[in-house]
Amino acid sequence: MPNEIIDGKRIAQLIKDEVREHSAALRARRDVVPGLAFMLVGENPASQSYVASKERACEYCGFHSTTLRLPLETSEAEVLGRIDTWNIDPDIHGILVQLPLPKHIDEDRVIEAISPRKDVDGFHPINVGKLVIGQECFLPCTPAGIQELLIRSNVATAGKHVVVVGRSNIVGKPIANILLQKAVGANAVVTVTHSAAPDIAVYTRQADILIVATGRVNTVTADMVKEGVVVIDVGINRIEDADTAKGYRIVGDVDYEGVRQKSSLITPVPGGVGPMTIAMLMKNTYQSALRSATQR
């Protein structure tokens, strides 16, 4: 068994290169530059790091980006007002409000305030509903990235048993809906299992393709999978490690070393799913700009 690693960094770079090329062509042909607006409320270090990474990706892809950094005490009304301004700005094709937001701001209300046409995160209820019924829409970036990893790694999904561990609105539910659609790169038989199951191993051992997104270290171990399984580990967990310079290391939700011995393909953490999220954000934003240009 090859026990091959799915290189998310390489695939994400390929996607960004494609977007960069398409973006340059759109600018030359239609004089349209994809524009992405970021909002960051407060000073959460992780959120600041994520936004900085997205800003760099925009620059690489030839996008125009603007970042609004607001203090922690910013009111919900002000946040909604800024979103309204971006919704009608023809130079902004995507709007991303970095989550989590401060507790006094209703995240659902903020997400619903973003125009579905500019919801490049794919979180608006209209886009979620379109995903479920199989209509064209913006797909959430991490689940869309998972599908791209499978497609570009030549993993056949049609008729295969995909088991998703986790039921979050960000990963578990959308990837299940993406992969059960009657479409290329999907058409799978999908099972979703989660913390309410008495024994998730009953389901994980049946998986041809196993997607794990729980936020818990060692959710899946080697005895819980069958030989030849394809494993997509979405987890990002920080654990203490005195042998490292930072005093910690990043691991996924899967016992990587153990499960790798039985898998045919597996994503590492870091370097697997993570880089795909930003790449798909860039792809969604380009698609939004393209739609805008063709509707002029």
Architecture overview:
- This protein has helices at residues 8-30, 45-61, 76-87, 107-113, 125-133, 141-152, 172-180, 201-204, 256-260, 274-294; strands at residues 4-5, 35-41, 64-70, 94-97, 161-165, 189-193, 209-212, 229-233, 237-240, 248-251, 263-266.
- By secondary structure, it is an alpha/beta fold.
- It has two domains: 31-115, Rossmann fold, CATH 3.40.50; 141-274, Rossmann fold (3-Layer(aba) Sandwich), CATH 3.40.50.720.
- The strands form three sheets. Strands 1-11-8-7-5-6 form a six-stranded parallel β-sheet. The protein has a three-stranded parallel β-sheet with strand order 3-2-4, with helices on both faces.
- The longest helix is centred in the first third of the chain and has 23 residues, at 8-30.
- The protein is globular.
- The model has no long low-confidence stretch (mean pLDDT 96).
Concise structural overview:
The protein is of the alpha/beta class and 296 residues long. The protein contains 10 helices and 11 strands. Helix content is 40%, strand content 17%.
Top-tier CATH class of the largest domain: Alpha Beta
Q: Rg from C-alpha positions?
A: 19 Å
**Strand element count:** 11
Low-confidence stretches: none
Strands ordered across the widest β-sheet: 1-11-8-7-5-6
Percent of residues in helices: 40-55%
